[in-house]
Design the sequence.
């Protein structure tokens, strides 16, 4: 199992099987970046002041359906990198995913 933002989010949501979860836990422990990202995600989710994207947002990065497709692994490959980059750059988008 690769350590990606999507698999990291699945790990944090406890949606992986136990074997995959253990493998990912080990990879996170070995990666300083992943460890810091986990801490950031937990901090963002717990923050009462993080704003959600506007309900009338028109861009693909603010569209809940696009984020859902990303999380379900049904988003076209050419959009995945754009979503991941945006989530890593924005606490609001990271919190939404």
Sequence:
């Amino acid at each position: 199992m690769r350590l990606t933002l999507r698999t990291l989010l699945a790990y944090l949501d406890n949606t992986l099987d136990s074997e995959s979860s253990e493998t990912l836990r080990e990879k996170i422990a070995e990666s300083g970046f992943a460890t810091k990202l986990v801490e950031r995600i937990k901090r963002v989710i717990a923050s009462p002041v993080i704003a959600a994207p506007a309900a009338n947002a028109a861009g693909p990065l603010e569209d809940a359906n696009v984020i859902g497709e990303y999380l379900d692994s049904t988003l076209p490959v050419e959009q995945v990198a754009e979503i991941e980059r945006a989530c890593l750059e924005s606490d609001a988008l990271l919190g939404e995913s």
Remarks:
- The helical segments are 5-12, 18-30, 32-46, 64-71, 77-89, 91-96.
- The chain has a mean pLDDT of 85.
- Residues 14 and 69 are 19 Å apart (CA to CA).
- The chain is about 65% helix and 0% strand.
